[in-house]
Every structure is written in C-alpha cells, then in structure tokens.
C-alpha cells in the first residue's frame, strides 16, 4: 500500500501529526527550522506546559537533589576522598550513558506512526527545531521518571554506602551536560575549547548527523568509532 503524501501543518500542534509522515519522517525531522520560536506540541495546555522548560530550571531543581544524595553517602560513613572518586565516576558513567543513548537510541530510524511520534518527543523535536530554547533541556517530570531505572542501574554496580554518591555524581553529570548543551546553542563562547565544542555539536545538527552524539562525543566517538557514512560525509565536505 502506498501511503498518501502527508504534509505537516506547522500552525497546528505537531506531536500527533508527525507519525503520519511514515517513511518520510526521517527526512522531514532532519530538515531543521532555525527559529527561536518553538511550535505548539499539544492541543492540551497541561501537556503543552510539560514540554516547555527554561534551561535554569535544571540546576535549580536537580542540584539540591545531587547534594541530598551525596550527603546521604557522607552520613553512611564515606570519607571526602571517597565521595570525590564516586562523584567523578558518576559523571564519567553519565557521559557514557548520554553518548550511547544518543547514538544508539535517539538516532534510531523510525517509520511507524507511534515510533515516529515517540522519536519526535524524545529527540526528533530538537533536530527539527534546534534553536527552540524551551525544548532544549530535558523536562524535569520526564527526568524524574528516568531516574528510577538509573538508580537501579547504579545500585547494581555499587555498595549501599557508595550508591547515593555515585547516583548524585551521575545526576550532576546530567545537569552539567544539559546546561552545556543549552550554552552551545544559545551562548557565544569565547574560549577556543568552547568554540570548537560548539562547532562539533552544530555539525551534528546541520552537517554530519552520524557523528557528534552528545557533548563528550569527541572522546567517545574515538572509542566506539565513527559510522561509515560519517567518513563519506566528511570526504564530501
Ligand atoms: Zn543540540
Ligand atoms: Zn542528535
């Protein structure tokens, strides 16, 4: 059956439309609309409000939670050097998690109605509207849900007293990542390192989608290797 060509009406809420694009969704979602004004996602004001997050909500909400978990490990007897090691390890685990999720899940090729819809909510919206400042950081309500499996994952690889500090470190890594990601899109970096990070990330959006999966991807791309298409794309540049 040949699906009728579907056109997304950008003046109407987008989330329940994009699934109808079917196989054309992938091409559509990777043609960015570079406007700071974001589209409406849902008809419902309640769901719509959950999709809009100011960047500063991330440190305001999550840094106290980070502190609470770290202090929990302190109360359980961990020394300061042990805390530092656990927090750094947590940040490290976060960078690996962020890279693997971004590379192997967020860029999965979808074509069915619900797969397209979920992909759009998860990551597609950021590629379609990369400068939408209110849809850039992860909504706190969704983060709160995802913290449950993350807690269980951390619990698997640590002891009862190190689990909270490791988890707090991972959450701190997330906060650092989300704020940096926002800054790369909306800030004007002056240092060379920040400028090259910005260029690397914007390449992921606008030129080489098979590379640059996340803020620390310059490191992890070396470990995992870049995809064949990337090399071809790089040659073509
Ligand atoms: Zn981005
Ligand atoms: Zn991406």
From TrEMBL:
Domain of life of the native organism: Eukaryota
UniProt entry keywords in alphabetical sequence: Endoplasmic reticulum, Fatty acid biosynthesis, Fatty acid metabolism, Lipid biosynthesis, Lipid metabolism, Membrane, Metal-binding, Oxidoreductase, Transmembrane, Transmembrane helix, Zinc
GO molecular function, one term: fatty acid 2-hydroxylase activity
Domain Fatty acid hydroxylase: 87-226
Pfam family, one: FA_hydroxylase
Membrane-protein topology: Multi-pass membrane protein
Membrane-spanning residues: 55-71, 78-97, 136-154
Localization of this protein: Endoplasmic reticulum membrane
Cofactor: Zn(2+)
Cross-referenced InterPro entries: Fatty_acid_hydroxylase (IPR006694), Scs7 (IPR014430)
GO terms under biological process: fatty acid biosynthetic process
Any one GO CC term of the record: endoplasmic reticulum membrane
Family: Belongs to the sterol desaturase family.
Name the record gives this protein: Fatty acid hydroxylase
Species for this entry: Dillenia turbinata
């Amino acid at each position: 059956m040949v699906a009728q060509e579907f056109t997304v009406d950008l003046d109407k809420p987008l989330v329940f439309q994009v699934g109808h694009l079917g196989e054309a969704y992938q091409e559509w979602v990777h043609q960015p609309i570079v406007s700071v004004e974001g589209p409406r996602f849902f008809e419902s004001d309640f769901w719509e409000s959950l999709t809009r997050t100011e960047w500063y909500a991330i440190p305001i909400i999550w840094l106290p939670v980070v502190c609470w978990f770290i202090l929990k490990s302190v109360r359980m007897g961990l020394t300061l050097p042990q805390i530092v090691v656990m927090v750094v390890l947590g940040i490290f685990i976060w960078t690996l998690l962020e890279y693997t999720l971004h590379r192997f899940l967020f860029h999965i090729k979808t074509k069915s109605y619900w797969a397209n819809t979920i992909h759009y909510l998860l990551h597609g919206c950021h590629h379609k509207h990369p400068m939408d400042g209110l849809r850039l950081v992860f909504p706190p309500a969704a983060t709160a849900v995802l913290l449950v499996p993350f807690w269980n994952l951390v619990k698997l690889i640590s002891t009862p007293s190190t689990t909270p500090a490791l988890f707090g470190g991972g959450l701190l890594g997330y906060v650092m990542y989300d704020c940096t990601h926002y800054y790369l899109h909306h800030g004007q970096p002056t240092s060379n390192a920040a400028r090259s990070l910005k260029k690397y990330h914007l390449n992921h959006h606008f030129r080489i989608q098979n590379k640059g999966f996340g803020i620390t991807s310059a490191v992890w791309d070396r470990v995992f290797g870049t995809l064949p298409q990337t090399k071809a794309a790089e040659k073509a540049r």
